[in-house]
Amino acid sequence: MVSFNKIFLVGNLTRDPELRYTPQGTAVATLRIAVNTPFKDKNGQVQRDTCFVNVVTWAQMAETCNQYLQKGRQIFVEGRLQSRSWQDSEGKNRSVIEVRAARVQFMPRAVREETSKEYDNMEDAPEEIISLESEVQE
């Protein structure tokens, strides 16, 4: 039997990245994105369904995302679905399904009228921050 676990998402950050470090010192950033899907309701009116997704990035990718991304920024994510379970401080079992990013690409911002610069403060940023590939091997 064949298995395949690959996901592609384009969405907007709903909050700034949350950066933390493992006890071994590896950076981990959680990105929360909103992915909108337009559809027509029974009256023919265009509506949108919004899905909120947690994206986890590791190592240098996590630090770079934390440095350059902020709430509202649109990103493209390539990765895989990952589930994990734990017991919270009250003893309740918790579980979550999230995306483990293999690649994060920063989408261009709209052109700002007063400056006519496409990337806001990213115009001097090196090429590698625009499209980030995971360096963490599993």
String of helices and strands: EEEEHEEE
Give the proportion of residues in helices: under 10%
The main sheet comes to: 5 strands, mixed, barrel
As residue ranges, the low-confidence spans are 111-129
Taken from the alpha-carbon principal axes, the silhouette is globular
Radius of gyration: 17 Å
Beta-strand residue fraction: over 45%
CATH topology: OB fold (Dihydrolipoamide Acetyltransferase, E2P)
Quick check: average pLDDT?
Answer: 85
- What would CATH call the homologous superfamily? Nucleic acid-binding proteins
Q: Could you say how many structural domains there are in total?
A: 1
Estimated structural class: mainly beta
Number of strands: 7
Class, according to the CATH hierarchy? Mainly Beta
CATH architecture: Beta Barrel
**Strand order within the widest sheet?**
1-3-4-6-5
C-alpha termini separation: 22 Å
Describe what this molecule looks like in 3D:
The chain is mainly β and 138 residues long. It has one domain (7-133): Beta Barrel (OB fold (Dihydrolipoamide Acetyltransferase, E2P)). Helices cover 7% and strands 50% of the residues. The protein contains 1 helix and 7 strands; from the N terminus they run E-E-E-E-H-E-E-E. The protein has one helix spanning 59-68, and strands at 7-13, 18-21, 27-40, 46-58, 74-87, 93-106, 131-133. Strands 1-3-4-6-5 form a 5-stranded mixed β-barrel. The chain starts with 6 loop residues before the first strand and ends in a 5-residue tail after the last strand. Mean pLDDT is 85; it is low at 111-129.
Protein topology:
Elements: E1 7-13, E2 18-21, E3 27-40, E4 46-58, H1 59-68, E5 74-87, E6 93-106, E7 131-133
Parallel strand pairs: 4-6
Antiparallel strand pairs: 1-3, 1-5, 2-3, 3-4, 5-6, 6-7
